[in-house]
Design brief:
2 helices; about 130 residues; alpha+beta; 3 strands
Length: about 130
């Protein structure tokens, strides 16, 4: 055997060990980065769900308001001589709507459509009637 070949065979395990150490270090660094990114993604998903979905209490409160307001509108129409819905000035919002934002999309003698929105402007309930 030549000296070069012998020297190469002697150095080969040392070179491999250096590469293994470097590769392990890079793999560990990548694993940490992936874990950090996964944590960030989970946090963003949780924040997105929180923004997209209003809290249940607000939604239930808005639906109660919408149901009571629909009941008031229909009661007014049933008791009116000409079977019409009230004008905005003739309508008193039910107590359940006191802290709610009611947005009229349509309110005339024959039809009504309204929404109840949350603090951030998201629609929590919608009702329509007439026809």
């Amino acid at each position: 055997m030549s000296v070069r070949l012998l020297l190469l065979l002697t150095l080969l395990p040392l070179l491999s060990a250096c590469q293994d150490t470097r590769a392990r270090a890079e793999n560990e660094a990548l694993t940490r980065r992936v874990a950090a990114l996964e944590t960030q993604v989970q946090a963003l998903k949780a924040a997105q769900v929180e923004v997209a979905a209003p809290d249940l209490e607000a939604q239930l409160s808005a639906q109660n308001c919408a149901n009571d307001l629909t009941r008031a509108l229909e009661t007014y129409r049933e008791n009116s001589i000409d079977g019409r819905y009230p004008a905005p000035a003739q309508l008193d919002l039910p107590e359940t709507c006191g802290s709610q934002r009611v947005n009229w999309l349509r309110l005339d003698a024959a039809h009504y459509t309204f929404t109840v929105t949350g603090d951030r402007g998201q629609e929590l309930a919608r009702q329509s009637g007439g026809g």
